Amino acid sequence: MSQALTKKVVILEDFKKIVPALKKQGNVIVHCHGVFDLVHPGHIKHFQSAKKAGDILVVTITADIFVKRGPGRPIFKQAVRAETLAALAAVDYVAIVHGPTALEAISVIRPNLYAKGPDYKNQAEDITGKISEEEELVKKFGGKLLITDDVTFSSSKLINEHLETYSPDVQNYLHALKKKYTADDVASFFSSLQKLKVLVIGDTIIDEYHYCTQLGKSSKEPLVVNQFERAESYAGGVLATANHMSSILQKVTLLTVLGKKDTKKDFILKNLKKNIRTKFFTRPDSETIVKRRYLSSAQGRKLFEICFMNDAPIPDAIEKSILSYLKRSLSSFDIVVVNDFGHGLLTPRIIALLTKNAKQLAINVQTNSANAGFNLVTKYPKADYLCVDEMELRYATRDRFGDLKKITKSVQKDLRAKFLMTTRGSKGSLSYSSKKKSFSAAPALTSSVVDAVGAGDAFFAYTAPAFGGKLPEDITAFIGNVVGALAVQIVGNKASVEYVDVMKFITRLLK
């Protein structure tokens, strides 16, 4: 980077000295903020208009880690983006903001004018809802919002058309989808789901990630010695499903079982979203389930896992209490969403009641190391919507190599499922509609995976309400794959997949 450009690119905190000095000289400070991943004529016109409204133009950009436009974005790293903007004549200063919004930058810069493009003229169309907060903060410091009026271009559309790295199959899939739907259409679909009354029932799991540094082989034992570095705990299992779902619904009711010996209740309540109403039942013969994974700090690879749980069927007294609650309450829910990890909550009597009395029943049954061969989807006599991964579908039919479509039809017939979705990892998803008697394949939307743990739960958490709300089946599958692509970028259940990020990604894909 040249010396001139180096002087333009500064640390955000530097503005605490730079801006007061410039204002003292009578300069009007104009501030622009964005990702600016691919600088195009629309950006340049925007910067020029902003500069004309004042004297000094400060441009801040979102740091790479906080860019939420789906896997693969930003195309250009923050240092390159900053250098590119600094090379523009209209730009006086550039800084990187290490946060998800412009609020920190506004607080530091305190501009006279905060400039946004014509896309933000109608604040109601801002899916993030942040433009109102930004305007309020600018006014607090004596400034005002400036909307420039220039020709707009779409960075996402340009990237999709000229820089996107998706395979031809994925591009053809997205091209066909664009002919039928816009991002606004999808936003309207989501809006129609908000008032759905949903009961989520399943096993609570606390996910612990313990990071270690490998010291080497023990001199006395045939084992690798690790030094503990740090630990993180996340709300997993059905808690994660409820958190994902709460992003698109006004209210979620969660039914689960905790262990009396160590309930983890305070941790759970702290890590559940505010719009989740809880119905906890406590079993006296166990602790709340904890799955502790040990990982390499340097590589992030999982080394081994320890489970703390009693996954025997819940005691009769607890089962009786749950059955009583369900008999009183099921009629008030539009859809019941079952997240079955096979750890004792979903007993035959509870399953029988759910399949008989739920208005709509969506189920996800998972095989794991603790229940291999014993927790199959076939233990349910009926399901309106079934969402499982391919291996679990094959386990259910004891057919490892057979044709997946034939296996799907067989399971669909047994469960009388109206809609069956099979997740296939890097191969995307395959759905089957009993009404249309047809299959539909949707490709995976990322090849980059940080951690696959919890991705299936996120997929299910969004597609179950989509099914319950009678969204088009192709949109349901598309939403699921979008959510899955975002979920595999998150370590375990460290964070939920948020509606805003889903819509940002969808907007990018459908440009």
From TrEMBL:
The superkingdom listed in its UniProt entry is Bacteria
Please state the span of the N-terminal signal peptide per the UniProt entry. none
Q: Which Pfam families match?
A: CTP_transf_like, PfkB
Write the record's keywords in alphabetical order, separated by commas.
Carbohydrate metabolism, Multifunctional enzyme
Q: Where is the Carbohydrate kinase PfkB domain?
A: 197-494
Q: Which Gene3D superfamilies match?
A: 3.40.1190.20, HUPs (3.40.50.620)
Any stretches that span the bilayer, and where are they?
Answer: none
A Gene Ontology molecular function term of the record = heptose 7-phosphate kinase activity
Q: What sequence ranges are listed for the domain Cytidyltransferase-like? A: 33-133
Q: Which GO terms describe its cellular component?
A: cytosol
Listed PANTHER family: BIFUNCTIONAL PROTEIN HLDE
Q: What is this protein called?
A: Cytidyltransferase-like domain-containing protein
Task: Give the originating organism.
Answer: Candidatus Andersenbacteria bacterium RIFCSPHIGHO2_12_FULL_45_11b
